[in-house]
């Protein structure tokens, strides 16, 4: 009974916080709701007995990724009205991506099976503890999907950098090519001054 109540409490807060991440107008509030969402997901993992995943979720995502998002959103002066101007233009592409994700979620919920069947050694619960079993599954049967997920995160990181990179005229930037192309004549002016005619 206690486990059921805890599950429904964590799940309800998780769904509400996930909805607020998308619906919040203030990006700082959205990141804070995302941190709350991660904490509740970690609670669900604990209820399932996956304590390693719960701790990794709290340490990596809450302790590093979400806090990094929060600092980036607070420190960068991003004009979100400017970013929303192309919403209608990119709506068909976003709708197609959302439809694909919805189909994937429906297939996952309906227990759609693929050819990626874990080996018997990896599924032997009594052979190893939780952490070793996860590592064995990730780096044997699910090695290629694991690498693909890393590439997807890399593309997302590059996209975030491109979206936030702006060239402002009032900010001084380092010009490496001009610095490397400089000669001595460009930076040093040698003048001969006669004795007694110098200027203080």
Keywords:
mainly alpha; 69% helix; 200 residues; Four Helix Bundle (Hemerythrin (Met), subunit A); elongated
Please characterize this protein's 3D structure.
With 200 residues, this protein is mainly alpha-helical. Among the domains are: 8-75, Up-down Bundle (Four Helix Bundle (Hemerythrin (Met), subunit A)), CATH 1.20.120; 118-166. It contains ten helices and no strands. Helix 1 (2-23) runs antiparallel to helix 2 (27-47) and helix 2 packs antiparallel against helix 3. It is elongated. The termini are far apart.
Give a nutshell description of this structure.
This protein has 200 residues and is mainly alpha-helical.
CATH superfamily of the domain at 8-75: NADH-ubiquinone/plastoquinone oxidoreductase chain 6, subunit NuoJ
Count of individual helical segments: 10
Give the CATH level 1 class of the domain at 8-75: Mainly Alpha
Cα separation of the termini: 89 Å
Extract low-pLDDT stretches: none
Main sheet makeup: none
Give the beta-strand count: 0
Report helical residue fraction. Answer: 55-70%
Q: What's the overall average pLDDT, rounded?
A: 79
Strand content: under 5%
């Amino acid at each position: 009974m206690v486990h059921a109540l805890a599950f429904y409490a964590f799940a309800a807060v998780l769904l509400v916080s996930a909805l607020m991440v998308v619906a919040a107008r203030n990006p700082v509030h959205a990141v804070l709701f995302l941190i709350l969402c991660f904490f509740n997901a970690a609670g669900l993992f604990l209820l399932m007995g996956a304590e390693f995943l719960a701790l990794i979720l709290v340490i990596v995502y809450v302790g590093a990724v979400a806090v990094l998002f929060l600092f980036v959103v607070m420190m960068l002066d991003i004009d979100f009205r400017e970013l929303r101007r192309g919403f209608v233009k990119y709506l068909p592409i976003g709708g197609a991506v959302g439809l694909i994700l919805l189909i994937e979620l429906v297939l996952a919920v309906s227990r759609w099976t693929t050819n990626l069947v874990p080996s018997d050694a990896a599924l032997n619960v009594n052979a190893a503890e939780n952490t070793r079993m996860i590592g064995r599954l990730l780096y044997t049967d699910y090695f290629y999907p694991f690498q693909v997920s890393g590439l997807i995160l890399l593309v997302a990181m590059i996209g975030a950098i491109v979206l936030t990179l702006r060239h402002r005229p009032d900010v001084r930037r380092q010009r490496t090519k001009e610095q490397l192309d400089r000669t001595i004549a460009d930076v040093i002016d040698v003048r001969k001054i006669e004795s007694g005619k110098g200027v203080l």
